[in-house]
Design goal:
Elements: H1 4-19, H2 24-31, H3 35-43, H4 50-60, H5 71-86, H6 96-107, H7 110-124
Helix pairs in contact: 1-3, 1-5, 2-3
Length: about 130
């Protein structure tokens, strides 16, 4: 499972790379690694070591702290999303009420069903 900090740092790497108009290949060459590794960093799949983050920051012309800007809010949002996911039982369709709700939902015409779905999202405050 991806750690929220790794995901945030990866997004900041990608953001800065795009801002300076650099490809993954170009950044990889400057840092001395393969572009696939940059891909893994940017998705948060692989954790960036401190020394590698230093090299990336230098190559992109920013301080290391740049990659952590806004992290608190991002990590908090990710933790909230995970908590909301955990609030739903793993086998929700084993619940008779949930199953009845799903059957009723799919009995509604599609255009009305979409509107109902949007209403449910707004009422639940889940985006």
């Amino acid at each position: 499972m991806k750690h929220p900090v790794d995901v945030h740092v990866g997004k900041r790497i990608r953001h800065r790379r795009w801002m300076v108009g650099m490809t993954q290949q170009q950044l990889a060459e400057k840092v001395g690694i393969k572009f696939q590794q940059i891909q893994k960093y940017e998705t948060g799949m692989n954790r960036v070591s401190a020394s590698r983050l230093w090299d990336i920051a230098e190559s992109l012309g920013v301080p290391v702290a740049f990659f952590f800007d806004g992290m608190e809010a991002h990590v908090r949002d990710m933790k909230d999303a995970v908590a909301a996911q955990d609030a739903v039982p793993a086998d929700i369709l084993a619940d008779k009420e949930a199953l009845e709700l799903v059957r009723s939902y799919y009995a509604i015409p599609e255009n009305q069903r979409r509107r109902l779905f949007e209403l449910a999202r707004v009422l639940s405050d889940v985006a």
